Amino acid sequence: GDSVTQMEGPVTLSEEAFLTINCTYTATGYPSLFWYVQYPGEGLQLLLKATKADDKGSNKGFEATYRKETTSFHLEKGSVQVSDSAVYFCALPGDMRFGAGTRLTVKP
Amino acid sequence: NAGVMQNPRHLVRRRGQEARLRCSPMKGHSHVYWYRQLPEEGLKFMVYLQKENIIDESGMPKERFSAEFPKEGPSILRIQQVVRGDSAAYFCASSPAAKATGELFFGEGSRLTVL
Predict the structure, then answer these.
(1) pLDDT per residue as tens, chain B (115 positions)
(2) Residue A96 and residue B41: Cβ atoms within 8 Å?
(3) Is B74 an interface residue toward A (CB < 8 Å)?
(4) From the CB of residue A31, how many other CB atoms can be counted at a distance below 10 Å?
């Protein structure tokens, strides 16, 4: 069935560092792809999405490009802030199992 | 348009008591998902329900846990005879379409503490 494989954490960066969190997928066809974020004490919320191959989703300085040739949807941000400290989940429709996510801690 | 509403936000129970967690999906959503999250851990899928039907309960413990989503009213996750290991955050999500063909919308969670 459809599934994602996400880079395990935790990831600790200094403020203004570059962030990449890897995500690859296995799917039939070309489904939409999502990144969710969970800030401390809160539920998950959608961070960005891409609905077809070569689409780039972006939000709050984060970007991810849907690459069908490498079946990847890596999350990137050029300069992280302390407020980006959270758990990040890569997901696709039809796979309800979000898994462990990647915990990011940004230090001042 | 109100989001997914979960209550109570915090619940304290003693061992052996029952816990009932409620989830009201977003307006127009007929699909509900329950997840459990232990401290510092990821999200573990428990059950997926449609109105009056359990579609996938592969993540539910075989004993003491049950879920329902009646025709009227919120979805309920019920935990009987709670034990300390049930202490966790329980999240509900909803979607308008079958098997999450799109985005899931999450509530803020219910945090259960078992003394």
Answers:
(1) 579 999 999 999 999 999 999 999 999 899 999 999 998 788 899 999 999 999 999 999 999 999 999 999 999 999 999 999 999 999 999 988 765 567 889 999 999 999 9
(2) no
(3) no
(4) 18
